[in-house]
Records
---
Amino acid sequence: MSVAIQPIDLQVLFSRLNEIGRDQSTLREAQAQAQMVAASEIAEQSEQLEHRVTQARTDEEGPEQVNDESGKEKRGSGERGTEARDERADDQVFRDPDLGQNVDVCG
C-alpha cells in the first residue's frame, strides 16, 4: 500500500527547504565552534602548566638520610659494623646484568 505525496505537501516541504538548510548549517557550525573553543581551552591550560612553578616536596627521603645511617654504622664496633655497611651498600647499588657485556667496535 503506497501513499502518494500530495501537491500541497510538496509545496510546504519546498517552502521549508531554506529553513531546514539554515538549521543544518547552524548545527555543523556549532560543532566546529565547540571544537575550536575546546582547542583554545586546552592550549591555554598547557600554557599555564608551562609557566607554573612546582613546589618541592620536603617529606621525601633524600640521599642525606642514607649518608646519616651509614655514618651511624661506622661508629659501630669494629669489623661487624663494616660488614653490615658493605652488605647494605651492595643491596642499594643497582647492577645491570647487560651492562658492559657488549663492545661496539664500529665506532
---
Amino acid sequence: MSKALVIGAGMVARPLVRYLLEEQGCAVTVADMTVSRADALVSGHPYGRTTELLVDDTAKLGKLISEHDLAVSLLPAHLQPVVAQACIKHRKNVVTTSYVSPEMSKLDGPARDAGVVVLNEMGVDPGIDHMSAMRIIHDVKERGGEVTSFKSYCGGLPAPDCNDNPWGYKFSWSPRAVCTAGKNAARYREDGREVNIPGPDLFLHHHKVPVEGLGELEAYPNRDSLSYLSLYGLENVATMFRGTFRNHGWCDSLKQVVDLGMLDETPVTYPAGTTFAQWIAGLMGQAPAADLRKELAAHLGLEESADVLERFEWLGLLSEEQLPIVDQETTALDVLAARMGRKMVYAPGERDMIVLCHYFTARFPDGSQERITSTLIDYGQPNGDSSMARTVGLPAAIGAAMILNGKINTPGVQVPVEKAIYKPVLDELETMGIRCVERTTPGPS
C-alpha cells in the first residue's frame, strides 16, 4: 500500500485526502499545526492518521517525509521550498499547488540529481488553467497552426444565487493569501507591446470580460504572464495575458485598500481596545474624526456616497468595534484579512463558483483563422465540498496518484504542461464533473 503525507489541512484539503484514501486506497497521514482540522479530514478512515506539525520543526518534517512514499504540500507558497528541500534530501517525490517561485526553481538541479519529482502548480490557477490551455495549444500546433493571441482568466467567486454582499466576494480559500495576491506586480503582452504594472497600481488596470451564462465579470492582470511564453511554446504570440476574475467593484475597492496601507506587512502592536475607526484614522495619519466617513472620502478623493465607502462601512472598518488582534505584534494585512475572513464567509448551504476562461486566436498555413474558447464553470456542493476545494485539491490528488503509480517519473521541478500529465488529469477530472467546454469559430479573414 502506498503511503502519502498531506501537509496542511486547510480549506482545500478535504477532496484531496478523500480521493487518496477512498479512490486510490492509499494510507494517508495528514499533518497540520491544528490536529483537529486534520482529524476532520480523515474522519476515522482506517487508512488515515493525523499528526501535529509545525513546519519549522525540520526534524519532525524530515522524519514524516522519510516514512512516506510521497508528500503533497498545501502550505503557503513561501513554505513550499522548505518542504521540497526535505523531500529531495530524503529522495521522496512531492506535489504542490503553488506557483514555482525563484527559490523553488533553484531546486531543479538537486531534484534531478536525487531522482525526485517536484510537481508544482497542480491546482486550478495555477493548474487546470495550464492543462486546459496546453491541450488547445498542442492541438493547434498538431494541425499546423500557430497561436497568435492568448488570454486566460480565472476566479473563485460566490455563485450568483449566493452573491449577496457589496464586495461581491466570499472566501473559499485563505483570506490572507487573497489579500497578499493584491500586492503583486504584473506583466503581459498586448498586440506585441510589453506592459509592466507595478504592484501599487495593479487594481487600476481592470477591464470587463463577457462570460456566457454569467454576464460581464471584472478582470485584472495576474502576475507575470510573460514567464509562460517559453513554457507554453508561445514565444512569438502577439498577445499573452493571464488575468483574475472578480465581480464588479472589487478592483476599485482594493485600490483604496492598497492606497490606505491595509496590505502593509510591517509589524505593529495595537493597544487593547483599539477600534476599527481608530485603526482607519491611524492609516490616514490622523486622530479619529467625528465624521470618519467624510474624512475618509476627502482623504481618498471620493464622494461620500461612493460605493467603495459603502463596502468599507459594511465590512465594519468605520465602526467602534474592537480589532480582532490586540496587545501583540501583528500587521495591517493581518487585521484586514481577519476581518474579511469573518464577514465574507459562506453560510451553510451556500455554494461557490470557479470560472476559468481561455480565449485564443490561431492562424493556419492556408490563411484561415480560428477563434477558440475554453470555459469551465464549476459550482460547489451545498453543505459539501466547495468548488475551490475540488478544483484545487483534486488535480493535486490525481497528480500524486500518477506519481505513486509510476505514470509520472521524470525528476526535477516541473509544471503540468506535458500531454502525458495534463491529458489523464483532465480526463479524470471530467469523470468528476469538472470539465472545460471548448468551442471553435472562424476567425477574422
---
Amino acid sequence: MRIANIYKIFGIAVLAAQMLGMSACSDTSQPRPTEHHAVSDAVNINTATAAELTRIPYIGEKTAERIVAFREANGRFRRPEELLLVQGISDERFRRIRHLIRTE
C-alpha cells in the first residue's frame, strides 16, 4: 500500500473519531477558545482564497493551495474536521487552528 493511501486512511479514521467525539490525543493544557471568539474571527475555509488562508497560523502557501485544490476537487467542506483530509493538515495542526476556521 502506498504511503499516500495510508495517510488518507488515517485521516478518514481521525475524522470519523472526531465526529463521534473521541480523540486519541486530548490536549487539556491549552485553554479552549469560546464559541464567540471562534465565530467572529474565524476564516471560512469554503470561500477563502489561498492568500487569505495563509493568514491562519501554521498554514503556509503550499498548504493553502492544497486546501483550495481539495475544495475545488471535492466540493465544499461540510465540517471543519474535513480539513484533516488535506495533505499537510495533521491532527496536531488542526487542533491548533480549529478555533480560527469555519465552514459557514
